Amino acid sequence: MGYRKLDIGWATRITGIDPMTKLILPRTIFFLFLACVSRSAAGENLEVGFASADITPTLESETKVYLAGLELNRVAKEVNDRLFSRAMVLESGGHKIALVSVDLIGLQYPSVLKVRASLADFDYVAVMSTHTHAAPDVVGIWGSSRSESGIDTRYVQQVEDQVVRSVRAAEEATVRAVAEYAALNDESMLGDFRLPHVLDSTIRLLRFRRASDKSICGIFVQWNAHGIEPRDNSRITRDFFGVTVDELARRHDCEVVYVTGANGGLMGTPDGMLRKLLADKDDADPFDAIELYGKLVADMADRALAEATPIELAPLEVSAKKILIPMDNPGFTALRRAGVLSREAYRWTGDRDPKDARQAGGDGPEALATEVAYLRLGELHIATIPGEIYPEIIYGEYPSTPEEGVDFPEASLERTIDAILPGVKKMFLGLANDEIGYILPKRQWDVTEPFAYGRTSAQYGEVNSMGPETARHLTETLAECVEAIQP
């Protein structure tokens, strides 16, 4: 049983990464391997492990903890529930990958690279964020003012260390296992607060059973909603994501990893659902809604798992690519140059290949480095997308004609991620390895008058996007990653 690692020359042609960079940063920028394992042997040799590590900040110190999302200068005053890094490690054929979820708004790509440097023996590590709006600011833009970063670098270092710890603990906990896949669509559980209304209302899960006695050893969940996001909140919380994890862990007596999918376009609880949930409660507060909705998501997960079917998750194959994305957002550019958005930037020349990229300087257009990856785990096909992707780009449910008033009515439609991924059993992991903001179809971009849908002002979304070309760059890169494995 063996594998074939691609030679550096071919890897360079695929990724645009020069051989020296490949040697300096093994596995942190690009890794593609083909595990030549027969289907029968693959099922017998899958091992999986789960573990978690606490990433809750300390509030007793003199340093303020600024909460990410919603308003500026929102200082944490108490901990409602603790934050975690939750890791799942898969091993097969002498290879291992880790899929990690952190209870943060969006851990940045530079931190993920640091994590990988400490896990160099892993073939691939992906770090997803649940996107809770009540955890410490790890992006920088929710400090005391628009000119002050909200990042505590010591806390970010703590998160990086704990992510590594959770992965190592999961590695130690690996057991021989068999896997099952489940998916269930329920539009009653999701709402879209931006026109046009398009949903990814499918929950997708992996359930793992120990090969020895078929007892459940872990569950991996992907659901596609923003949190409840209580206003005027000063309590640290995982939001409903944490309730769902805790509820499933209690019901199944196992570890649970939760990741967020296509939550862009303002996916959230359906209009009126929270009022209905709280109708019988006196003096209800937002945390009651968090509890109730989190349990409903757990119920939906259990309905899906009732129809779970076996799936082979080996051999393990990964194709990842580092790229540049143009920062066509004056607000982001200003924040970065002021040191509030704590990211290195590169000169944007029109080429997303970072091979010859130079650090940004002067007043020219800028780009950020990020990553897209395709994971083929046996029969399962996974896309990792570094931000909040709109469901339209997953499924292609675009209006038949461009809405009157959009900025780019003649723009070509992006190739959909569902069409790019081969096979039937899939997962779409958002906020993966980075948070670069909203990723929306160019044909829906709408920031100049006249506005679409007869509106007198722009809809929310573009202000937190890198730019109208972001989706095209990401989907084209994903297609290249798939082609590298499946020509």
Write the layout of secondary structure elements.
Elements: E1 2-5, H1 8-15, H2 19-24, E2 33-36, H3 39-44, E3 47-54, E4 78-79, E5 84-92, E6 95-102, H4 109-117, E7 124-129, H5 153-172, E8 175-185, E9 191-192, E10 202-210, E11 216-223, E12 235-236, H6 240-252, E13 255-260, E14 267-268, H7 273-277, H8 286-305, E15 309-311, E16 316-326, H9 330-337, E17 346-347, E18 366-377, E19 380-384, E20 388-389, H10 391-395, H11 417-420, E21 425-429, E22 438-439, H12 470-485
Parallel strand pairs: 4-12, 6-7, 11-13, 19-21, 20-22
Antiparallel strand pairs: 1-2, 3-5, 3-8, 5-6, 8-10, 8-15, 9-14, 10-11, 16-18, 17-18, 18-19
Helix pairs in contact: 4-5, 6-8
Concise account of the structure shown:
By secondary structure, the protein is α+β, with helices and mostly antiparallel strands. It is 25% helix and 25% strand.
Explain what you see.
The chain is 25% helix and 25% strand. The chain is α+β, with helices and mostly antiparallel strands and 487 residues long. Strands 3, 5, 6, 7, 8, 10, 11, 13 and 15 form a nine-stranded mixed β-sheet that branches. Strands 16, 17, 18, 19 and 21 form a five-stranded mixed β-sheet that branches. The protein has a two-stranded antiparallel ribbon with strand order 1-2. A hairpin with a 2-residue loop joins strand 18 and strand 19. Helix 4 crosses helix 5 (153-172) and helix 6 crosses helix 8. The longest helix is centred in the middle third of the chain and has 20 residues, at 153-172. The protein is globular and about 60 Å long. It starts with a strand and ends with a helix.
